[in-house]
Write a structure and sequence with these properties.
Shape: globular
Radius of gyration: 16 Å
Helix content: 55-70%
Largest sheet: 3 strands, mixed
Distance between the termini: 52 Å
Order of helices and strands: HEEHHEH
Number of helices: 4
């Protein structure tokens, strides 16, 4: 599979799932959720979609639970929008990049104070 095609599908996943979460799912636990990136397997059968949320890890974990329960519905809507022959099975994962960055920032701040 062409890496350009995989990259386009990853970008499309982020765009369309963000729109689905923002405009079609009416669950208040999804307020402040951001779809940060997607990684698709080479055969397009699976996709990991990374999620961050305002409100820390507790809010993110609640949002992940909701998204995982709605993964089939989100996959179906994505398939209708993307017009793909093979729609990847979507797995929602936490994006820990922001927390790791905040931890590094805090450690640097502590070093500066010492």
């Amino acid at each position: 599979m062409s890496s350009n095609r995989v990259s386009r599908i990853e970008s499309l996943l982020v765009t369309e799932i963000s729109d689905i979460v923002r405009n079609e799912l009416k669950d208040p636990r999804l307020a402040g959720v951001t779809i940060t990136q997607a990684r698709v397997s080479r055969d397009l059968s699976h996709a990991k979609v990374y999620v961050s949320a305002l409100g820390g890890t507790e809010a993110r974990d609640k949002a992940l639970e909701v998204l995982r329960n709605l993964a089939g519905r989100i996959r179906g809507e994505f398939g209708r929008r993307a017009h793909l022959r093979v729609v990847p099975e979507i797995h929602f994962e936490p994006d820990e990049g922001i927390e790791a960055g905040m931890r590094v920032h805090e450690l640097l701040r502590q070093l500066e104070q010492e």
